[in-house]
Structure formats: structure tokens, C-alpha cells
Amino acid sequence: MGEYQDMKLRVIPLPEEELFVPGHSACAGCGEALAVRIAMKALGKNTIVCLSTGCLEVFSTQYRNSAWKVPVIHMLFENTSAVASGVEVAMRRMGKDANVAVFAGDGATADIGFASFSGMLERGHNIIYICLDNEAYMNTGVQRSGLTPFAAHTTTSPSGRQSMGNISTKKDILSIAIAHGVPYVATASIAHPEDIYRKVSKAASIGQSYVQIHVPCPTGWGFDSSKTVEVAKLALETRLWINYEAIDGEIANVMRVNKKPVEDYLKLQKRFRHLFRSEEGKEIIGKIQEIADKNAERFGLL
């Protein structure tokens, strides 16, 4: 890996024009809606959105209403990357210059659509792929996905006397994208809108790119809708989410923030409340802290 550089937080004036507008039916405090609003400011009007099945598709494209002011194509979980690839090739052959952007959830990216996602990356299409990572299949009932954190409760990894939640750790899609040779790979968080704007703008200028945005979900995670940004900030401060960039396979920037224990993040969410009810749960919290510490070591945040 290359040398780590601190990512300096700075205020960036964002365009006033809204391309993802109010009137959708997202839950109060929806992290996805916040992220997409900022991302669309970075992508601009000259964009074709390829939209996977999921929360965003459902709440923003209900019949006779649309929150989008750009062309949007809805695809299935499993073929979003394949259809987006066709759109990108068609635009190129017609000599038309436009951003082709995918918005997909964690399940559509890491699980159901993983094969077509990998194929799209292998072929080198100039597509800005944005994964809205709310860490479960929220639209269909909070089922576990490949990006659900270790020990989190979902409806398919229930907590209780016989279970301490999800037994797997988050799949490292960022490293998988880097291994495919994607020139620009980044993470972002709705805790820092200017950072989302900067990274999506850079992705659009480069072409082939993958950006994974952490988007807390009040409904699925179980916290008050007024605390979305607070929860997002705590994910960064506890090192359970790291904001960084990888350019041509090398880590280039890592965001440094104040350090806090993982309990500060976990205790605000109902999906982790089972961990605070037993001695076994306390041991699991210790393992989650180990995950955070390994993240800090990997990205030079010790």
C-alpha cells in the first residue's frame, strides 16, 4: 500500500440545483435519501441512473410520481450491472457523453447481483457504481446481507438465548473492487456530505469507479429518526466504518476523526441491544472492539 494521508475535512459549496427532490416516501431520517441527494449534485444533469430493486427504487419511483430529475431505469437485483453495462456501451457507440451511474443496496451489490457486478468490473465499463450500504435487505424486511455487521440482529439472524446475531463479518467489497483493477474505489458516509460530493465528483471524472456510502437506517437498525447523522458519525469514531480512497489500487486518503469505544455506537441501536443483556453479549462486544481495532491498524489510525 502507498503512504497514508490524512483526509482533511473542509467545507465545499454544493450546487443549489436539486436533481433528487422532495416528495418521495422514504422513512424519516433515511440515510439513503440524504446520500442520493448529495451524490446527484455531484453527478449533475447529464446522468442516466440505473436503479436496482430496493428501498430507493420503491420510495422514489412510485407510479405517477418520481423524485428524479434525470432519466432512471429500474432493474432487478441480479442484473443491474449487466443492464448498466449495456447502457454505457450504447451511449458510447452513439457518440453521446453522459454519466452512467448505478445506485444499488448492499444486498444487490454483495449478494444477489454480485456475479454481474464482477463481470461489469472485469470488462472495464465507465460506470460510477454507488452502493448504498444500510447493512441489510431493508425493503423486504431487514434480512441479513453480505454487508451486515458481525453480531447485528436481523430477521434472518435473530438474537435470543441461542443466538448472538449475525455470525459473519462484513464482506470487503472495496478490496474485491480493487482486485478487479478498478481505478477509483472509495468509501463515504452521510456524516460528511462534502466528502460524498467530492468523492462522487472524482468518480465521475475518472469513469470506472466504485463508491460505497454508509447510510444508517432508523427503521432497520432501531434508532430515533433524528439521530441518523449522529449514528453515522459514531460509526466513524468507533472505527467500525472507515472513510478512505484507493487510487489505482493504493490507499491514498484516510479520514481521521476522534476515537470512541464501540459501545457508544452499539448502544444507540436496537439491532445490538441483545449484546447488553448477558455476559456472553459482553464478550461479543469485546470481539466487535477487536474488529474496530484491526480496522484502525489496517488504515493507520492507531
3D structure, described in words:
This protein is an alpha/beta fold. Helix content is 36%, strand content 17%. The protein has eleven helices and eleven strands. The chain has helices at 31-43, 55-60, 80-93, 106-112, 114-123, 173-179, 193-206, 218-221, 228-237, 262-266, 279-298; strands at residues 6-7, 47-52, 72-75, 99-105, 128-133, 159-160, 163-164, 184-189, 209-214, 244-247, 250-255. The strands form two sheets. The protein has a nine-stranded mixed β-sheet, sandwiched between helices. A hairpin with a 2-residue loop joins β6 and β7. The two termini are 17 Å apart.
Short descriptors:
302 residues, alpha/beta, Rossmann fold, nine-stranded mixed sheet, two-stranded antiparallel ribbon, 11 strands, 36% helix, globular, disordered N terminus
Number of domains: 1
Helix proportion of residues, in percent?
A: 25-40%
Count, helices: 11
Class inferred from helices and paired strands = alpha/beta
Query: Rg, please?
Result: 18 Å
Blueprint of the fold:
Layout: E1 6-7, H1 31-43, E2 47-52, H2 55-60, E3 72-75, H3 80-93, E4 99-105, H4 106-112, H5 114-123, E5 128-133, E6 159-160, E7 163-164, H6 173-179, E8 184-189, H7 193-206, E9 209-214, H8 218-221, H9 228-237, E10 244-247, E11 250-255, H10 262-266, H11 279-298
Parallel strand pairs: 1-11, 2-3, 2-4, 4-5, 5-9, 8-9
Antiparallel strand pairs: 6-7, 8-10, 10-11
Helix pairs in contact: 1-7, 3-5
